[in-house]
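Predicting holo structure, magnesium ion bound.
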Amino acid sequence: MATPILLLNAGSSSIKYQMIDADTEEVLASGLIERIGQDVGVLTHKVNGEEFVANEEYSNHSLALAAMVQMFADHGPSLDDVRAVGHRTVHGGDKLTRTMLIDESVVATLEALSPLAPLHNPPGIAGIRGAQKALPNVPHVAVFDTAFFSTLPPASYTYAIPTDVAERYHIRRYGFHGTSHSYVSHRAAELLGKPYEQTSQIVCHLGNGASISAIKDGVAIDTSMGLTPLEGLVMGTRSGDVDPGMIAYLHREAGMSTDAIDTLLNKASGMLGLVGASDMRDVEAAKDDGDERAQLAWDVYIRRIVGYIGRYFVLLGGIDALSFTAGVGENSSSVRRDVVKGLAALGVTLDPVANTLRSKEARAISTKDSAFAVLVVPTNEELQMAREVKAVIA
Ligand SMILES: Nc1ncnc2c1ncn2[C@@H]1O[C@H](COP(=O)(O)OP(=O)(O)O)[C@@H](O)[C@H]1O
Ligand SMILES: CC(=O)OP(=O)(O)O
Ligand SMILES: [Mg+2]
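Done. C-alpha cells:
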C-alpha cells in the first residue's frame, strides 16, 4: 500500500510541487509553476521521466493551482489516490510551532501573520484554499519554516526593545527556511557519520531568499533571519541587515511611506538593487565581464556570509561541518570558494577539484586536513515535508 502525499511549496511568484510516496520516498511526480501574475506563466509537470509544459496566464495562485490539478488529470498520476496534502507555510508566529493539521483557526492565524511575511504567507494561504477545494476529502497539513527555530534561546531571539512593546506585538526573532536547515543538517550528520545530537554545524541556505543557521548538539541556537524573512544576508531582492535608522530617515528625508520602504527593502534591494539583476548567475556573469557594480555586489554578498559564519563559529565553539545548500549554495562553486577564502583564519581549506565538480549528490568539498568539513548538501524541503506530514496523519 503506497501513501502518496502531495507537497506544495508556494512562493511569491511560483509554486513548486511534488507527489511523494511517503512509504518508499519515491517521487511520483513533480512540477513548477513560474511567473504567476505575469502575462505568460509556465507550468512544467514531470512524471515517469516525461515532461509536460503549459504556457498560460496564471493571474493568481488559485488559478495556477487549478492548472496544476488539470495537469494531474491529463497526465497523471491520479490525485484521487493522494492521502494528504502538505503545505509549506512560512510564518507560524509564536503560536504555530510544529507541523499540524490545518483547520479554520490555523488559516485565520496565518492571515493574521501575513503582515510579517508579505511575500510568503498570502500565496501560502491561497495555495491552502485552492488545494482544499481540489482535494476536499483528505487532511491538509501545514509545515512551518519557523518550526525548526522554536528552540532558539532567549539570548538569540530577543531584540533589545522595550519588553512590553515586544510582548504586545509578538516581536522576536523567528527564523525561516527551517525545513531546509533541518533536512540539510540531518543529511550532513549522516555524511559525517556522527549522531545528529552530537554535531555542531553551520548551514548556509543560499537561494533567492537566504539564511544561515547555527546548530549545537543537534539543536538550532541561532539563525540570521528574524521577525520577518528580511533580516540577515544579502538576497536576490532583499537587503538583509541595514541600520534600522535608515527607515525613519527615508521616511522623513525622501518622503517615502512605510509601504514604499517595505517594498524597497524586500523587493527592490539585494542583488537587484545593486546590479539590476536578482539572479546570481547574471550577477556572476557580469562580474566576470568586469562590471564594477557586479563586483561590488558580489563582495558585499560574500562579506555578509563570512561575517555570520565567523560569529556562529565563535558562538558554537567550533564546528564539525559547514554546509552549503539551495540554488546558489548548491550550484555556485565561486560563491563557495570566496566564502571559504574569507574564512582562512579558521583553518578551513577547500579541495578545488571537489568544489567545481558538478553533482546532485551530497558531498564533501574540503581537504582532508581542513579544520572542519565543508559540504554541499542539496536541500529537499518536499521530502522533509513528506516525512513530517506522514507522521502527523499516522
Ligand atoms: N548555477 C548557478 N549559479 C549561481 N546561482 C544559481 C545557479 N543556479 C541557480 N542559482 C540561483 O539560485 C536561485 C534560486 O534558488 P532557489 O533555492 O530555488 O530559491 P527559491 O526557493 O527562493 O526560489 C536563483 O535565483 C539563482 O540566483
Ligand atoms: C522564507 C524565505 O525567504 O523563503 P524563500 O527563500 O522561498 O523566499
Ligand atoms: Mg526556497
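The first strand starts at residue 4 and ends at 10.
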